[in-house]
Amino acid sequence: MTDSKQKQDFSERIQRIQQKHGTPPPPQVQTEAPPSEPAPKGHNLRNAMIWAILAAMAGVGGFYGLMMFDEWKLSQAAAPDNQSAPQPQPKPVKDVRQITDQGWSIPSPGLATADREQLTVLDVATGFDPAGQDAPPTVLIPFAVNSECTFKRPQPNDVVYNVRMETGTLPTTTHVFSNRAIANALIDHIEGVQVSKKHFQTGSRAQGRMFAVDVFVTDTSAPVYLVLQSFRQNVIWNLQLAKGVSLSHVAMIGENSGLVAPEQDVPFEAFRISDFVTNFEFGANNDPGPCMVAPWRRPQAHWPAQAKADNGNDLYTNQIYSFNTGYRAFDAWYRQVMGVPADTNVTAPHSAAHVLVGDLPDQLIEYRSMAGRDVYVSENDFTLIGDDTFEDTHIMLLTAAVGGDLALLDPAPQEVSRQ
Amino acid sequence: MKLIGTALTLSILALLAVWYLPTMYWGYQISRAVSQAQSGDDAAFETVGELAEGPPLVAWLRNNKKLNAAFNPTDLTTGRYVSYKLEMPFEALLKPGETLPEPDFQELYAHARAPQTLAGYCFEVLGNLGTKCDVSKSNATLSRDGTVRIIGNLQYVPDYETGDPSVVKNGELISARVRLIGGRDLHNTLGNRAEVFEKVRKICTEIRTLLGNCIISSISFEITPRDGVQILRASARFDAFADSTQYRRDSLQSAVDQIAEGLVN
Predict the structure, then answer these.
(1) R_g (Cα) of chain B, nearest Å
(2) Is B183 in a helix, a strand, or coil?
(3) In the 8-state DSSP scheme, what is residue A248?
(4) Among A13, A146, A258, A393, which is least packed, fewest CB within 10 Å?
(5) What's the pLDDT score for residue B157?
(6) What are the pLDDT digits (tens) for B94-103?
């Protein structure tokens, strides 16, 4: 018997005795650690980073989600009041309106109305051709703008209608601008060529493009005195008259104003805002003055900007303050000149291509585009039709200014070789 | 894990040592210099100017960019130019027989013709200073009396020996200015401008002898009409990459002043 056999026998005997007496077997001591998997390392830093990234993503997502929810709530609030009311004649209309901070922008064929009803030009007119609505006029006839700061006062039996907007939405190829406007644009352009090395055919151009706005007039109860106002861009107003409408006067306020030759022989006049309000910057031209013709719109409850201001947003609070101040100053001047408040029968979208003043017509109006018609435009140094002509005008003037060779705007480097 | 923690700690300490503490010290220095300058200490203005380069790390990064702009041997760079301030009647911009444009367009014409007017001075830059010349900046104004003022820079590639800044230990880009027409007015003639170029080159040669390298970073010509004649004023600025343990801006400035004085007298 070997030693190991004796040790094993002894060990087994001890275990039997212990089992018999109910004592637990002694712990088996391992003399040699068995090979095993390495203990898992801690990944606290990695996990912390992963959790931080996840938390940041969730936070950013949540933040934007909340912002979008707010926007959604605001757009719901901005929807017309009668949206949920049952419509007498349900008519599927594609809603082309877009809410901006300062009210609805209503591109064609949407129709801007005083009560912000969701309509299109097809609800008031027949023969409307979307493809031809920006067709160019035949002739531009310049007219002298009013330099006296006093419009003809409405007659007692006139009914005054106001259309007031920031811009039109339908660009035309008609351009009206001053010498100074094109000179300043080309000076900016030259700096672009020299500093940013832009090609001479790209860059600044005079801001003179006109936007077409149709005004559907339906009130036959009295002679209509129209006050058409565009704050930020040049507009060509195209009057579309319902049967039986009688116009007494058309007054326009804008930088450059145009009027498609009306069906009726009606007197018209226009102010150029910058003739009277020189500091033409947002928030800087809203002070009362003897000739405060800048046509500010009164902030409305449905404007998201108003809602944001009401929620305590400082930026929008200041913006709304500026709008209100500007409107009060404009209204003061308007009342003095016109004898009625500036919001009399007003339709005041942010921007639009078609506007309805008055109720829906009993009979659809035969739509008349400005194609082939004469357009009166406020007198200026340049009045031209066609984007190519507009571009050529810039290139010709720039070529003359540089002395014949546009390459001299950025002369080529000169070099000599030295041995 | 322990290793990462140690690395993080060391990184934070390194950031403190390299960025935060020097920046704090820089902030202290510039605050003190500004308050000294405000209390009337003229010397403090120089210190403020130097400190305005930014904290040490920023200054180092900027120096490298400036170094390339100054010493690049082949390319036109913003670090080397000849600047011209010109005054002339608007009619001088027109070609013989050309009709005077409407007043609304005269400023546009001045802007449009400024680059070619400035490019006309490239011939003297190429003849006196460089192998390449290009109009890098131009501007024009028209005053009510019909005077056009044109300001612009002509970048150049030097045709002179600049020295080798790469051999400098503890290098720092330092600069000095000098007014070249001392105490008397010169008529604006081609010869007088050529004289200015010559002086500037001589000063730069002396600086290179002293410090091993030199760049004429700018020459400024100001030409103004007075009593029927055109008066020329000129100044120049030199850059050198010098051992910051031996030279500072003021030492280069005094060296340049001495050299310039010797040339004028």
Answers:
(1) 23
(2) coil
(3) E
(4) A13
(5) 95
(6) 999 999 999 9
User: Nearest chain B Cα to A43, which residue?
Assistant: B1
Strand partners, A177: A382
Radius of gyration of chain A (CA): 37
Q: Which residues contact A45 (CB under 8 A, 6 or more apart)?
A: B1, B4, B5
Residues 6+ apart with CB under 8 A from A400: B101
Give the C-alpha separation, A78 to A354, whole Å: 20
CA geometry: angle at A383 spanning A377 and A388, to 5°? 135
> Coil, strand or helix: which one is A237?
strand
Distance CA B106, CA B124 (A): 28
Measured in angstroms, the CA of B16 and the nearest CA of chain A are apart by 22
CA distance A286 to A293: 10
CA angle B242, B246, B249 (to 5 degrees): 60
* Residue range A265-305, pLDDT digits in tens: 999 999 999 888 876 555 556 777 788 899 999 999 999 99
As a whole number of Å, the end-to-end CA separation of chain B is 73
Write out the two tokens for A43: 């990944």
CB contact under 8 A, A413 and B76: yes
The answer to whether A236 and A188 are in contact (CB under 8 A) is: no
**Best CA proximity match to B154, nearest among B74, B66, B218:** B218
CA–CA gap between residue A237 and residue B253 (Å, rounded): 69
Q: Which of A178, A205, A416 best probes binding to B when mutated, by most B CB atoms within 10 angstroms?
A: A416
Residue A351 contacts residue A166 (beta carbons within 8 Å): yes
- What's the pTM? 0.71
Q: In whole angstroms, give the CA distance from residue A344 to residue B102.
A: 44
* Strand A171-177 versus strand A382-385 pairing type: antiparallel
Reported ipTM: the value is 0.73
Of B104, B115, B123, the CB nearest to A194: B115
Q: Choose the closest CB to A190 out of B111, B119, B134.
A: B111
B/e letters for A303-336, b = 16+ CB within 10 Å, e = fewer, are bbbbbbbeeeeeebbebbebbbebbbbbbebbee
What number of other Cβ atoms are within 10 A of residue A264's Cβ? 11
171-210 in chain A: CB under 8 A from chain B = 178-180, 183, 186-187, 190-191, 194-195
Helix axes B103-119, A179-195, angle to 10 degrees: 20
Cβ-Cβ pairs closer than 8 A, A with B, add up to 84
Does the pLDDT of residue B65 top 90, yes or no?
no
Which tokens go with A263? Answer: 């069906």
